[in-house]
From TrEMBL:
Cofactor(s), names only, from the UniProt record: Zn(2+); Co(2+)
Native source organism of the sequence: Morganella psychrotolerans
A molecular-function term among this protein's GO annotations: acetylornithine deacetylase activity
Record keyword Zinc present: yes
Keyword field: Cobalt, Hydrolase, Metal-binding, Zinc
Pfam families: M20_dimer (PF07687), Peptidase_M20 (PF01546)
Official protein name in the record: YgeY family selenium metabolism-linked hydrolase
Domain of life: Bacteria
Amino acid sequence: MAKQIPFDKIVEKAEHYKKDMTRFLRDMVAIPSESCDEKRVIHRIKEEMEKVGFDKVDIDPMGNILGYIGHGPHLIAMDAHIDTVGIGNIKNWEFDPYEGMENDEIIGGRGTSDQEGGMASMVYAGKIIKDLGLEDQYTLLVTGTVQEEDCDGLCWQYIIEQDKIKPEFVVSTEPTDCQIYRGQRGRMEIRIDVPGISCHGSAPERGDNAIFKMGPILGELQQLGKRLATDEFLGQGTLTVSEIFYTSPSRCAVADSCAVSIDRRLTWGETWEGALEEIRALPAVKAAKGVVTMYTYERASWTGLVYPTECYFPTWKVEEDHFTVKTLDRAFRGLFNKEPVVDKWTFSTNGVSIMGRHGIPVIGFGPGKEPEAHAPNEKTWKDHLVTCAAMYAAIPLSYMAELKK
């Protein structure tokens, strides 16, 4: 028989730990932790996990931190990537992005919404589980993952493929504004290379200007973006040209190569092969003899490990009646006595590997809001930390109850 979930006590405990979560989040924010430079924040998280009573804490060869609560046969995971993007133009910040700020309602600083707030709530959910004796026939794995901002999902490719860890489902704590998210568009990183022949700039007719050849391609890409496929739930696929490169002997010469990077967002039903082929089929690409390829990622983690992957991050979604949605719906209604909002992410998450590549169901519930991600003056809400800590503490038992239906 499944344990009864003491919803009121969970909410009370989560509120009790608001100050501890705030302190812990501000400690993480104060440690710069861009992708591949997460060592210090990983060790700070390890310290907090051990302090609140996690049963086991490991750091894997890639540098991901893995904290365990309980010893039951059903493995449930909750994930937060703990790397951040940089701060951008410091003039756009109204406060120091690492010193941060707080008032009665909010905490500011780089990583507060995206997404170290999720880690703070998860660690104290573990504390709540321990305090209230909520262990059951499950093991809760709390992961603090690395390199997500550089290469979303790479960390979980490693966890699944090399650590050989395969949970029954995963809760992503990326920011959802305390709503339940059940999918996202996929993405891929594409490059177009156009060849040219250099010559002196005073006689351009002697050469073949690669930059001019790229011009018509850019126009056709813009038009292609308007006719990409659409899904009723996830929306339309998109593309944007995000970078442009060239080579030329000098400013007084014709460019002998030009290349662009494309950020391609894939909606349901689109494939990486199709996305490449539709660009290769553009008349201007054919005329310029453009070469269309997908990027690969081969950057070393903070431990020095290199785990190469192609820059393709699959689309995924779970259906509205999926057991993950029902599990979180049960927990949310029990804790807060109201109906949750169910939606989707606009951006990409580690779900691209967990479910997109490996078919392990993912569901989202996290503190903070999507528009805060990568923005100056990033912030999150203290009440969100409390709400999410309560949810994360209740979800395992809610799942056990769902299994027994």
